[in-house]
Design a protein that fits this description.
The chain is α/β, with parallel strands linked by helices and about 350 residues long. Helices cover about 45% and strands about 15% of the residues. The longest helix has 26 residues. About 35% of the residues are buried.
Amino acid sequence: MAATQEQVKQDCHEFRETFETLRNEIGKVIVGHRDIVEDVLISLFSAGHVLLESVPGLGKTLLVRTLSDALSLEFRRIQFTPDLMPADIIGTNVIFEDPQTGVRSFQFQKGPVFGQMLLADEINRATPKTQSAMLEAMQEHSVTSGGTLHRLPEPFMVLATQNPIEQEGTYPLPEAQLDRFFFKLLVPYSNRDELATILDRTTTQDMPQARPVVNTDQILKMQRLARGVAVAPHVQDYAIRLTLATHAQGEFACDITNRYVRYGSSPRGVQALILSAKVRALLDERFHISFADIKTSALPALRHRVLLNFEGQAEGLSHDDVIIDLLAKTPTTLEKVANVPGPQAS
């Protein structure tokens, strides 16, 4: 038993070391945004996808490219536009003629989705028909064309970007597709010191580039290790109750939910909470998750899974406001539920 505990301790230490090495390598190119980089890596080792939202020019595309370089993964990019068709993403069957026999046959020509690190740039600019072509790939890691199932290479990760300001000529992602994203991350502006460093790196002859530090086998091994992290029943129950608190008129709903929320999180929300918490536990060299791990993951895991009603939008409430309130009002232990006062709706 002692040997097993020692092995677990060693695995946790190696996970943290590899994670830090990878984050530092990305930091050679990406200035600041440490929390964003960490959450993207947490999504990777949880086998999830990420939606990055910010105004243009804040380094979203560079982050994805740098990540693929440091991970030694096959990088593909799709620039989403209104005229993009599903076949432009997943591929299509084309007629192939054998030069020797002259016999013609259909062969599947793979699209750009058949990569390992896929950048879906400005995903909300494509039509719903084209957006839906990503659903099967993101959930089942496969695509179906002409009745034939084609598996995508593993690991497979989609990092999509969207601009929250420019709405002309865009098609907002439906809730079913938003739910496929493990995390939704809001990329902030760089501060004064970060902008100075960006200028030093981009307006001089010094052009840093990330080197490969983690290969495919290591990524898959780390994903398996993360899924093995222990979850105590009372910690898991807290994640469940926090997710159920997003459901209006539900057993664990707070006043803010009943008043301002139209639809709450699906089961994918609590899955994201638990899986990301497992990775955070490993980063602290623990093989069990804590309440703090759950709370830290709540905003990126739930903000895109909570749909506000008209009153919430009229009040100028954000999804983060709702989740922060739920974190404050949802007790970690069930015995304290009866003593928790309802939130004061503004």
